[in-house]
Hints:
Layout: E1 3-7, E2 12-16, E3 21-24, E4 31-35, E5 38-42, H1 59-70, E6 72-75, E7 78-81, E8 84-87, H2 90-106, H3 113-121, H4 123-132, H5 141-154, H6 161-173
Antiparallel strand pairs: 1-2, 2-3, 4-5, 6-7, 7-8
Helix pairs in contact: 2-6, 4-5
Amino acid sequence: MRWKLTHKHEHDIIENEGGKTLSYNPNLGIQIIEQDGFAFKDLNQSGELEPFEDWRLPLTKRVMDFTNRFVLWQEEDQLFYRKGRIAIPKEVYAEIRQHGEETMQLHNGDMVEEDLEYLKKNDLIAVLLLMFDNDRNTGKEDYLLQLIIHSMELGVLENIMYSIWEAVRKFLQNRDLQQFSMISTLP
Length: 187
């Protein structure tokens, strides 16, 4: 085992040796999976590590797996899923675009052009996965992504979107581009 669990007042922190530090709230339904000695969040409660949950993989692969698995896609400032469509508020979309562009500039030499283009077209979904990977000592952002998945299945995603946009705004305003890079920290 190459990770250590620390219990805080309202959340837990997992420090993966040589990898990603994760914050989560076990009372909100997120389970932990261990694979190759590392700890990962089990968002869809499958008991298996899915590519979108594996913080070691490049973000492009994770976003592709997530969108295919949950039939979710983005077209400009619109998010589509099987049972509906949601418009992204202009101010949130502007912040997402800025975050994506800054991060891509920061790691320009580390990605091929098609990966950069794919992430640019799916920047909201990339930000949602980065929120899932949070290590901000809150343990709340992962629950938000779980809520999105369940709401899509029920066809009521539109009903919780205001809360999602507020969480995305807060996440982007407090971002640290070194900490929330769009590429894997491990080879």
